[in-house]
Amino acid sequence: MTPAGPAAPTAALDLAASLNAIGSAKSAQAQAALKDKTKAAAQNFEAMFLNSMFQQMFTAIDGDGPFGGSGALGVWRSFLTDQYAKIFAKAGGIGIADHVYDTLLKQQGASAS
Q1: Which of 36, 42, 66, 92 is deepest in the core (most CB within 10 A)?
Q2: What is the pTM of this model?
Q3: DSSP three-state, residue 108
C-alpha cells in the first residue's frame, strides 16, 4: 500500500485537533461537575450553620405543641429546625454559601464564572 499522500498529515492534524477538543469538553464537564458539587457542599454548610442557629432559638421554648412538651418534642423540633435550615439555605440563605463556594473554588484553582 502507498501512503495517502499530502492528505495524510492533514488528517492526522484534524484527528489530533478533534481529540484535543474532546479532552477540553471532558475538562469542561469535569469543571461543571466540580462546581455543582462545590455549590451543594457550600449550601449544605450553610444549612448546618442555620440549623445550629435555629436549634438555639428554640431551646428556651417549651410548650404544649403537638407533643405536649414530652421527650418527643425534642425529636420533632430537631426535624423541624433541620427542614427550616435546608429551606432557608436552598432559597438563598443569609449569604454564607456564596462566600464558602467562592473560597472552595479558589482552593481548587477554579473560577466561579
Answers
A1: 42
A2: 0.65
A3: helix
